[in-house]
Write a structure and sequence with these properties.
Number of strands: 0
Number of helices: 3
Order of helices and strands: HHH
Keywords: Membrane, Transmembrane, Transmembrane helix
Distance between the termini: 75 Å
Shape: rod-shaped
Radius of gyration: 28 Å
Largest sheet: none
Structural class: mainly alpha
Length: 69
C-alpha cells in the first residue's frame, strides 16, 4: 500500500462534515485561549516589570523617608 493509496482511503472514509470540524476548531480555540492567556500574561508581566520598585512606592509615610539612591 503506497502513501497515496493510504491518503486517498483516509479521505474517502472521512465522515465528519466541514461544519462539525469548524465547531470543534472554535471550541478548541476558546478553551486554549482561556487556559493559556493568563499564563502568557503572567510571563509578560514578570518579564517586563521593573526589577525593583521605586522608593516613593515603598514608603508612604513622611516621617521615615528613604533617601533616593
Amino acid at each position: 500500500m503506497t502513501f497515496q493509496t493510504f491518503a486517498f482511503a483516509r479521505v474517502r472514509s472521512r465522515g465528519a462534515s466541514p461544519s462539525r470540524d469548524n465547531s470543534v476548531a472554535l471550541i478548541l480555540l476558546v478553551m486554549m485561549t482561556l487556559v493559556f492567556a493568563p499564563v502568557i500574561g503572567m510571563h509578560l508581566v514578570a518579564a517586563f516589570s521593573p526589577s525593583s520598585l521605586p522608593t516613593n512606592l515603598l514608603s508612604r509615610s513622611t516621617d521615615a523617608a528613604i533617601p533616593p539612591g
